[in-house]
Each structure stands twice: as structure tokens, then as C-alpha cells.
Amino acid sequence: MSSSTRIAITGLGPLSSMGIGKDNLWKNINSGKANVKKEEAFIDGELWDSFFLHKVEGFNVHKFGIDEDRLSDIKDWKEGEEITDLNYLLAAVKLALDDAKLDYSKRDNGLGLVLAHENIGLMPFGLKVSNLAYNALIGKSKDQLSKKDFFNSLYKSFLKSGYDIQSFADLYHVAKVFNIHNYSLFLNNACASGLYAYEAAAEIIKSGQAKAVVVAASDNPEIYKYLWFRDLGIYSKSGKVRPFCKDSDGLVFGDGGAGVVLEDLASAKKRKAPIYAEYIGGGFDLEGWKITVPQIGNDSYQRAINKAFKNSKTKKTDIDLLVPHGVGSQPIDYYEAQAITDTFGNNPKKPLISVFKPFVGHNLGSSALLESLIMLLSLKNDTVLPALNYENPDPKFNIGLNKEKKQVRLKTAMKICCAFAGFNAAAVFRKVN
Amino acid sequence: MPQNLEQEVKELIAGVIGREPEELKLETNFWKDLGVDSIKAIEITVAIERKFKVSVRDEEIPKITTVGQAVAVIKGALEKKAK
After folding, report:
1. Does domain B5-82 have CATH number 3.30.70.100?
2. pTM for this structure?
């Protein structure tokens, strides 16, 4: 393998409110309707709070044909609990590998693994800590429970859960289930994780560490996550994500995840694998100003896009379809629109611009991967999806989203993302002739 | 601490939002009264950080809605820096 190795996308495995598996997702998303419901959180049977959510329906990890012994081992490690975030990762990897028609039964299957998640393990851990700490403390004075005893009881109860927070353990679980022994990596670049994962996977293949790499990411939103975003003032009260609109009022979480298989193009052609597109390069720039706020006026996002042009040997006129982050928060949309107009000009006719969060919600650390997957289906089907909820475009953004479903010849598409902490990223994909 | 901090802040904010400094009183809520939005609030923060060489915390940005609050945030940041 070498730097001249070309990288094909050969497997797609989405899990979202719009369907499980690529065929269901594509069929439902073409219906032009979203699936948003109120999620309610209860404490001791009493309603705590509720929030709008694009929720995955009918998910059962035992229905994907995953080795039941392995699932049982994981449940044992998790002390009897089933962790939805991890189950989504397992299902996404399985769907993507099956779609790529890759056999992973033998040890020497040549597979590598890249997993991404913004906060894996954190929600179950946080809720567990809250619950047990409450039970330990309730009705007790400081004299009745020493700090040492309290700390000791927490240590014993949470050590294993603590290890599972954004650590190696879930990488181990997923790799073991799918017999993956080559290079593996867990990464977290917030919402841009998916695009960083493409680049990491491509480099793993080009370096010869693996013949194919399955990339997977997930997010199962819980009440704590909602409370944080609500307190940041960026969670939609209307339940509608309206990117680049006058009446946008924030984001709505999207449940689910995605798996994507990247593979040496020559090998993929040789084994007659389905080839969705070629990953031809990405660009990445870390703004490094604040964690939760982009710096209006900074050109970091433009730099990421321009690096992607350079690395993919493309120019702006090559891009037929652009899929921005499109979260529906005024400052983030403005920051993003500036990057788009600086790159492609005001109200560009080309590329066509499509956004997917109004359909599937904001899948956080998995959002860029899930949305790039939908973009790859658009590319394959020569279809540009309409921007849902795009009823009151705001002229100050100087961009127009695609309003009607269009059947057009698409060759090259770009996914861009401006994430928390200023992880700005762009990835370019081209159809393979 | 700058001698005329309040005046400097008025001039800085007025420059960012395209108003005259005289229009800004200490208690003028520039979100409610002058149409400043979350986008301009970030631009004001960027300008404050550049001029006074301080770092404003993420959660303080939406709290800067009056000249008085901006002055308080800058004072707090300068004092923290001086420690």
C-alpha cells in the first residue's frame, strides 16, 4: 500500500429515526417527512423533563445476527446492563460489514476499526453516580458517613463504569465481536468525529495496517445531555431543526449511529464489492477559541475546506453537492454560511446545498458520519434531497438550500462540519466510474 | 485596570454594532434595546478579548447584555489575570 492507494466506500450501515439499514433509511427519507417525538425522562415514576427527539424505533441488538455469546460477554462486563450507545455501534458495524459483503469470520480478515463517540459511557455513568450517591447520602449526616467511606463506596460501585467512559473497553468489545485484530482507534473530535474518522481510516489503509477499515459512531441522547444543551440555549423548543432560517430556534437530538466500510479501491473492484464512492481527501483545522461557541470572523472553517480541496485535488467548481453541519442555531449557522460564501460566493448556484438534520436530528459525535452516509446515498442515486423545514430562509446567510427533490447527475460531493471546540472539517467523495 | 474602562467599552461595543457611543448607557440592554443578537454578541466578545487581552468564558458570552455587564466581565477577567 502507498499514498497512491485509492480508498473506496463499500459498506453503509445507518441507524436513525428514519430507518435502520440503508434501504429503509433511503426509502423513508425520500418520503419527505421527519419522525420527531417527545422523549420523557422519569425519576421514581415522576416526570422529570421532556425534550423533542428523532428517536430510533424498533431497535433490538439481538436482531442483527451478532454472535450471542459475545453479546452475553459484554453484558457481563457491563454488570448486567445493556448500553444502547455500544449496541448501536455493534449494529452499525454489522450492517456496514454485511452491506460490504465482507467476511470477518477468520482471524486474518485484514480488517481495521475506527470508532467515534462524543461521550460514550458518560450518560449511564452519570445517572448511576447520581442515583447511588443519592441513595448513599439520603438521610445521613456528615457524622454518619465519613468522606473516606463515601469515596470508598463510590470507587467500588463505579470503577468499571468509569473505565468505560470514552476509553479502550468499548473498542475492545466491538473489535472482539467482529474478529478485528488489525489497527484500531477510538477518536473524539466532537461533531466532526465522523470526518476525522474517514481520514484516519484512509491513512490506516494507505499505510498497509489494514485492507479495509470499518468506521462506526453512535449517540443515544439521554436527559443529562439534553439539560446541558438546553442550558447552553441551543436546544429547540419547537422540535423542528430549521437551518439557515429566520425562525430557527436550535437543534433537536438525533438518536442512532452509522457504520461505513472503507477499503482499498483495487481490492474492492477485484472482489466485485458494491462501491458507493471514493473518499478522495479531507481538510481539518482546529480553530481553538471556545468549546461551545464558534469565533465569528475567524477563517478556520474556510481553511479546513481549502485544505480539503488541496488534499482531494479538486476545486470549488467540481463540487456538485454540499452538505453543511446545519444545526439551526443562529451563530453556528452564520459562522458556517460565512465559510460557504467565502468559498463558493454569495448565493451560489453550484454546489447544490442539502441539510439532513431536519430529517434525522443532531446525532452529535456520529452526526457527520450519518449525514455523510446519506450524502453518499444521494450521490449513488443522483438525488438531491429537499431541505425539510426550510420555510423562512434568512437572507442574511446569503445561501439557499435545495427546496425540491431533484434528480441530477452528481459526481462529487463534500460534507463539512464545524464542531464544538472548533474542530472544523471537510471531506470530499467522488463517484467511481 | 484601564482608567476609562466604561468609556472604552462603550466605544468598542458601539463600533461592533454600528452605533454611536453616546447611545449606550451603562444599563442599556443592547439585546432588547438595540437589536443585538447572538451573532453580534460573539463579535463583541471577540473585540473585548482582543482589546483587553482577556479570555471570556463560554457561559459568560450570553450574559453580556449591557455595558455594565461587559465592564464587570472585563474587570473580573483582568483581576483574575493579575493574580
Report:
1. no
2. 0.94
